[in-house]
Amino acid sequence: MKLSNGYDIPSVGFGTFKTPDGETCVESVKEALKVGYRHIDTAAYYGNEVSVGKGLRQSGLPREKVYITSKVWNTERGYDKTLRACEKTLRDLGTDYLDLYLIHWPANELQFGDKAEGINLDTWKALERLVDEKLVRSIGLSNFYPKHLAPILKKANVAPTVDQIEYHPGLLQEDTVALCRGNGILVEAWSPLGRGRILDKPLFAEIAGRYGKTPAQVILRWVLQKDILPLVKSVHAERIRENYEIFDFELSAGEMDAIDALPPQRLSGHPDEVTY
Fold first, then answer.
1. Domain limits of the chain?
2. Which DSSP string corresponds to 186-227?
């Protein structure tokens, strides 16, 4: 996929949320890269950036062949703290630049009242400086909905390239997706498989049977055909491979519509309601 600033981003990302730090993380990253993933998504909050970096180096792939995303955590919002947080992430990963750096969650009014917008803007200004200093190639957001995104769009000197949101069957986030698309922002889907809680829906088994695929592959294909980038994770070799084998079939318009019509289901906190 192509970002608005001209950089390419591999169309399936390998996520590392809740991947245990240490050998499990190192080996899962190596396995993902062996299978063919070239996009690794991590975050300071995940506590495994050192192991992610170790897996990248042990894979033997040149740094420029792997797209690396990380995120600044909520406790490090603000201009100076964000700059220091990125420096630590670079050290922990063992790289001198990031392909993409995101604000992990927006500061919200529940916690910060009328200061929330200013905190988000200060954090964004720090990301812009990181681009200027060539420590980060692209910058973006995570869990930003229209009310959080609008002030950034209005005042940014460097436009956001990505918004990473919870997105899966039952949570189409139509307002956020429309605003992003109208402003050249690529939407990435975290938890595209609904943390496994939606895989047993009969519709997915029915569609999967037509193509000789699994329900998970059907869902990930649906995400791709929505022009949204899925981030998938597993520590099991067979699942890592399965989640990548989604480029050899295509869902029909009717199948896409049937998945779109599944009832609403949110699996995580709304950005305006979280307190972490």
1. 13-196+223-237
2. EEEEESTTGGGTTTT-HHHHHHHHHHT--HHHHHHHHHHHTT
Other Cβ atoms closer than 10 A to 274? 15
> Which residues are CB-neighbours of 240 under 8 A, at least 6 positions away?
14, 28, 31, 32, 35, 37, 234
pLDDT tens readout for residues 57-109 = 999 999 999 999 999 999 999 999 999 999 999 999 999 999 999 999 999 99
Beta-carbon count within 10 A of 275 CB: 8
Residue type at 103 in one-letter notation: I
**Would you name the residues annotated as active-site residues?**
46
Per-residue pLDDT reduced to its tens digit, 9-55: 999 999 999 999 999 999 999 999 999 999 999 999 999 999 999 99
Supply the pTM of this predicted model.
0.97
Identify the CATH assignment for 13-196+223-237 out of 3.30.300.20, 3.30.70.270, 3.20.20.100, 3.40.50.1860: 3.20.20.100
What element of type H or E holds 182? helix 174-182
CA-CA distance, 131 to 135, in Å (whole number)? 6
